[in-house]
Task: inverse folding
């Protein structure tokens, strides 16, 4: 993280009119450093005359540096971390996104480059079903020591943060405003706990209000910081669907928990699955398996109990053989089980329908 004059220019660059994150990075590359953007605008910025003229104008330049100095005083007073996109502490997953912020402000203790990061988003009007699904998924990911990222909004976001704290997991709230305030204010106590067990991150300077247009920008940070996005209860419109779309554009894995077909609060989640924008999940085990975080699929306790209760002796024997031997051909299963081909085929078909086994090329079978 930069200090002193370099930090001053990093903050100031984000304040230049007409300079967004994409143009800002081009300027730094073109000039050879952030300080050079301010010191030698005419020589290097011929293709950007409006920006060059602004930087060459003493009054405009002074006002920007004055505002940057004010921000640095705020940063120092409240011990806020500043992450420039070239810093090693900057979230590397996010850095590789074309429109990632040049600068992030961070208050907390979490490693933003942890090995496993999952975002959970959803409706602000969470039902008991949505809360329960969120809790089960977060708690189920406890062993993976994931960081849970969300937007600190009402509903699913807040539930994801709270359950992560309960599970002893670090959790990051991405804000749509500056760190001098908190929206919604009702989450103030939650945010204070998160600073001690995760953190708060934003691209917005102090004094920035939680205006509507800030939240889609906030959502791109949520999508970019993580390995996967999990959508729990989302209506036909809203921030959760925006986050899912951005995550897809970043080539992130997107998962959705399905809901009733007549439930407006699950319309968006179901739509993501129906249009192949998200994979359907029912448990943390599904997330672990699809992300390659465990070698084989282990059904949730309830699913496992139901399968075992309903399983015939022949099916149980086949499952035990696959558990012991791993992936096995159908001929070998017949020989080992003592059952004829017709019986083994029927048992395997039923187990496929139950999601217990999968058929691989060459009539090879293995546990899901």
Result:
């Amino acid at each position: 993280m930069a200090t002193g004059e370099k930090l001053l220019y990093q903050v100031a660059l984000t304040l230049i009119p007409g300079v967004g994150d994409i143009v800002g990075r081009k300027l730094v590359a073109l000039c050879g450093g952030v300080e050079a953007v301010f010191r030698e605008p005419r020589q290097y910025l011929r293709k950007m005359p409006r920006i060059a003229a602004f930087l060459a104008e003493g009054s405009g330049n002074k006002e920007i540096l004055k505002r940057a100095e004010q921000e640095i005083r705020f940063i120092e007073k409240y011990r806020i971390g500043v992450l420039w996109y070239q810093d090693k502490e900057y979230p590397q997953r996010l850095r590789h996104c074309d429109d990632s912020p040049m600068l992030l402000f961070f208050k907390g203790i979490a490693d933003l480059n942890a090995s496993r990061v999952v975002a959970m988003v959803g409706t602000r009007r969470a039902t008991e079903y949505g809360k329960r699904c969120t809790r089960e998924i977060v708690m189920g990911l406890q062993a993976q020591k994931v960081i849970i990222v969300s937007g600190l909004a009402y509903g699913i976001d807040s539930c994801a943060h709270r359950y992560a704290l309960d599970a002893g997991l670090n959790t990051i709230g991405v804000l749509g405003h500056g760190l001098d305030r908190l929206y919604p204010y009702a989450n103030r106590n939650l945010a204070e706990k998160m600073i001690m067990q995760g953190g708060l991150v934003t691209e917005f300077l102090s004094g920035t209000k939680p205006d509507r247009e800030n939240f889609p920008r906030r959502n791109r940070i949520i999508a970019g910081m993580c390995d996967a996005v999990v959508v729990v209860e989302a209506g036909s419109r809203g921030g959760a669907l925006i986050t899912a779309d951005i995550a897809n554009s970043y080539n992130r894995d997107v998962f959705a928990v399905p809901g009733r077909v007549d439930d407006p609060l699950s319309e968006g989640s179901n739509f993501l699955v129906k249009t192949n924008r998200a994979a359907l999940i029912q448990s943390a085990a599904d997330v672990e398996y699809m992300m390659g975080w465990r070698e084989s699929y282990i059904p949730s306790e309830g699913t496992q109990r139901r399968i075992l209760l309903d399983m015939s002796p022949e099916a149980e024997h086949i499952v035990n053989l696959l558990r012991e031997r791993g992936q096995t051909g159908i001929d070998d299963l017949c020989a080992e089980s003592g059952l004829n081909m017709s019986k083994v085929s029927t048992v395997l078909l039923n187990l496929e329908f139950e999601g217990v086994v999968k058929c691989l090329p060459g009539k090879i079978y293995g546990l899901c």
The domain at 108-290 is CATH 3.40.50.450 (Rossmann fold).
